[in-house]
Write a structure and sequence with these properties.
Elements (H helix, E strand, L loop, with lengths): L1 H24 L14 H21 L12 H14 L3 H9 L13 H21 L5 H29 L9 H20 L9 H9 L7 H18 L9 H7 L4 H12 L3 H19 L5 H7 L5 H12 L3 H9 L1
Helix pairs in contact: 1-2, 1-7, 2-3, 2-5, 2-6, 5-6, 6-7, 6-8, 9-11, 10-11
């Protein structure tokens, strides 16, 4: 489903470029293509909900429901605003546009850019706050950050164009830089598709990013698997994570691995960064301490589990458990 949503997203971007081409070539203002006039607004309003739904699907695996129809509201309003114009014949449309009477047929056309910008900003904030602060895996988090980052570049380009054109600093002919951001996005997704075609056949983007990053690392699958087992055994028996100053180089040295290979093993087999990996053990240790003695002082738990400060401990604990240490402690007493 995520790939299907991404596919629709890319298709609409392609239609956006086609529309821009008609506009720049002035073919849009011909009887053959004038009926496409106004549909660009619908494309603009479709991108934000799609990026939100795509991210939601990747992060929480949620499908569609009736409540998702709420995302169609901006587009429905846009269609209602344009219906009087859409129902005109080609000759009349050209005459209305040529005589500058478009506002007579399209409700609130002067303020449509405010609505578009509002929707773009709203969904950007909604997507970021809803999903990117979740406890995601290392590779999935990288892919989503790239996706959202690319979308934000588009949002910034759109806002810049609208604001600068309204201030009279640029003309409508300068909107090509918006298309550049669209082309960049399509190009990057296409790149992933060409170097790893399975990405459009159900392979997770996690696998693609991992494949590319460590393609030439020199670590064989067999050695990688052996090192993973050795790492788990070392973490459970020696508990190096209890040292607050533990570094990636320290862990690599204990297992006779290079820093790069140590990082690769943690990223590939545990889908975490080094610090997330170490902190996951520290949180398990903190939970064990609190279960064994619910009356234990939180400060003692912090340093006994390998953390160096209270803020880091509280933030990491809530990230991994969804609740604060105090709430966890209360549950153990209850």
């Amino acid at each position: 489903m995520a790939n299907a949503i991404l596919g629709v997203y890319l298709l609409l971007f392609a239609l956006n470029i086609s529309y821009n081409t008609l506009y720049w070539s002035e073919l849009l203002y011909s009887q053959q293509f004038i009926h496409f006039f106004g549909w660009l607004l619908l494309l603009w309003l479709s991108y934000p909900p799609l990026i939100y739904l795509y991210t939601r699907r990747v992060v929480v695996r949620k499908g569609f429901s009736l409540t998702d129809l709420v995302h169609l509201i901006p587009m429905i309003f846009a269609i209602l605003f344009y219906i009087p114009f859409f129902t005109l014949d080609a000759v009349t449309k050209l005459e209305v546009i040529g005589s500058g009477r478009l506002s007579e047929y399209v409700f609130g056309i002067k303020y449509h850019f405010v609505g578009v910008i509002s929707v773009l900003i709203f969904y950007s904030i909604l997507t970021y706050t809803s999903f990117l602060n979740k406890n995601l895996g290392y590779n999935k988090n990288r892919w989503l950050k790239w996706m959202i980052g690319a979308f934000l570049c588009y949002v910034i380009a759109m806002i810049s164009y609208f604001v600068l054109s309204r201030l009279g600093l640029i003309g409508t002919g300068h909107d090509y830089f918006i298309t550049y951001t669209i082309i960049f996005f399509i190009g990057m997704v296409s790149y992933f598709g060409f170097v790893q075609p399975d990405v459009f056949e159900g392979l997770s983007m996690d696998s693609v990013l991992r494949f590319k990053k460590y393609k030439n690392s020199g670590l064989t699958p067999g050695h990688s698997q052996e090192s993973r087992l050795s790492l788990v055994e070392f973490m459970e028996s020696e508990k190096p994570y209890l040292k607050g100053d533990l570094r990636l180089d320290d862990l690599a040295g204990k297992l006779n691995l290079s820093r790069h290979h140590m990082s690769q093993i943690i990223n590939e087999h545990f889908d975490m960064t080094f610090f997330d990996f170490i902190n996951s053990y520290r949180i398990d240790e903190a939970k064990k301490l609190l279960r064994d003695d619910p009356n234990l002082n939180i400060t003692d738990v912090i340093y006994s589990s390998g953390f160096n400060n209270r803020m880091s401990f509280y933030n990491t604990f809530k990230k991994h458990t969804g609740i604060t240490p105090t709430q966890f402690k209360s549950k153990q007493r209850g």
